[in-house]
Amino acid sequence: MEKEESAARRKRNTAFLFIGAGIFLILERQVGFFSVIAFASIVFGIYRIWSQADKKGYLLVIIGVFFIFGDRIFLLIAVIFISLGYFYLKSQQLHRHERYEQRQRVIDSIRLGSEPWVLRDSSIWFVIGELNMDLSTAILEQKETTLVLQGLIGNVNLIIPEDVGASVSASVMIGQASVYNQKETGVWNKVNWTSPNYETSDQQVKLVLSYLVGDIQVRVF
Question: What is the Cα–Cα distance from 88 to 150, expressed in whole angstroms?
Fold first, then answer.
């Protein structure tokens, strides 16, 4: 039995090898060897970040990006500056109070919710990162709290308790955005959702999320 399963696995792996080799040859003829390697590095890196929470995935993504841009690295830097500038403008527009927390990182990983934590007006930006927040354990210090979450490549998972009024605006150029029972996938995705109890709730959270490439998931429990 084990021999049969082993043989089946070998055949399946061989099949995948041939399929992968064929796809590689087609792409290599169309876009070039280094572009294929770069694309594969980015895809595999994002997969490792999102499915395995592996920090080595970030390195693979960075390597892939540098392969793609090559001598056009200034274009990448320009995109980063534009994204960061937009982040500052959006933060100033949305935060009613002058005092709010700001956080900018090239690579970042934020996990909040395993124990009680304080939620304040905040703006968070990163080039590549992941963000996991469980607001059911959050302590809200004011009636309305605003969170601005932006970046280039992001994996975002948020949990909002039902008794908190929520207003969510999520946009992803490439990827998917899922908010409560609404979901958009593909290119140029945008989801706007407001909970029925937003205006009457004692505590309100306004979320503004924007990424070039990302997977956004906002759940309500």
Answer: 10
